[in-house]
Known about the structure:
By secondary structure, this protein is mainly alpha-helical. The chain folds into two domains: about 5-80, no CATH class; about 85-120. It has helices at about 5-15, 20-30, 40-50, 55-65, 75-80, 90-95, 105-110.
Amino acid sequence: MSLTHRFEVIDELSAVLDSERAEAIYEHRKAMGKAKALTPYAAKLLAKQFARFNDPNAAADEMILRGWMAIKLEWMAREQRTARPHSVGESALQEIQQGNANAPTAFERMLTARNTTGNAQEPGNAQIITLPSYRHG
């Protein structure tokens, strides 16, 4: 694909995405193979889909993470309706894994969650978990 083609595709995506995401979407589709690479017109259609989200950049990230060729608001809404609710413990674990500054508070919430009797004064049932250790650097 020519450099002009690349710029046309990224230009269409940049109408709703930041430059990093536009480039990432271009590379993502290119990596899927020649038959699934974006044309400028397909990029224009995809940009319209991204624009329907409150955060088009987050939608682009989700599309890449899931290995999708495209994304639609309806797909994500349907998934949210059918997703099981997260427990306090799962929410706390997600915050800890994401490095959220509120992770200690989330962990405390998990440990003091209501037990099956509904008495908020008694400690909740906590499941002991082991998080993988990561070495940086």
